Amino acid sequence: MSKKKYKIAVIQLNLNDIAENNLKKCLSWVRDAANQGAEVISLPELYSSHYFCQSEDVDNFALAEPLYSTSFIAFSALAKELGVVIIVPFFEKRMAGIYHNSAYIIDTDGSEAGLYRKMHIPDDPHFYEKFYFTPGDLGFKAFPTQKGKIGTLICWDQWYPEAARLTALQGADVLFYPTAIGWHPLEKEQYGENQHGAWMNVMKGHAVANGVYVAAANRIGLEQYLPDTAGIQFWGSSFIAGPQGEILAQASHDKEEILIAEVDLDLQENVRQNWPFFRDRRIDAFGDITKRAID
């Protein structure tokens, strides 16, 4: 099972292409990451297509795939060939009328170590995900793999400390956040710096509060597939943070890149021994956290 040290990678890509081309591209980049020493590798959210949630269009449901079909077959074979763990975020067709924003966790032998379905679903201008995705029903999970115990959350989940906490409490060494987040181009000048800063700060906070490594894999590029709209400029800036929130690796805003960092479980334990946040949690006083509001 897990070692005291292992290397993780996030891959930052422009994915504004058809599914077949995106699949070939991602297979190649995963292979490159493995050749650079990565042992657990994550792709960005909804890797196989452009970010179609910019509109509410039933034709986009054709982009979804059933479980254990194209994506699983391809990445399962690659994981087994390379002896690596691969996180593959995809658009899942569960049945007619029920679709999820999901991720396979594929182990080194090509088997499924786990399946995660995105729990928090946004509905913002040009991020109309509630039209497409049923909220996840598998809960928050940490998945044992041959390389380490990892947790996988997806994009909008990154804003919720409860999601990070519940995953970390199950023993995850790393929280992976496959992501598709960017600027509305017309708002970037006014709000862009604060939006990007908040995105990084909240996940670094999860790393600190839980003593875990955090890895975010975003896409890049202007995706402007709708006429008469400015599209979304995905801001890249993928990163890997250590258990004190320290940035171990960070990508640019506009280049395709592989980021690699080492997970050191002895360091993680030392951090938790010196910052014993889990020890001091007042779980007897947290009952109201399950309420929508405390009136």
UniProtKB/TrEMBL annotation:
GO terms for molecular function: N-carbamoylputrescine amidase activity. GO terms for biological process: putrescine biosynthetic process from arginine. Keywords: Hydrolase. Residues 6-265 form the CN hydrolase domain. This is Carbon-nitrogen hydrolase. The lineage of its organism: Bacteria, Pseudomonadati, Bacteroidota, Flavobacteriia, Flavobacteriales.
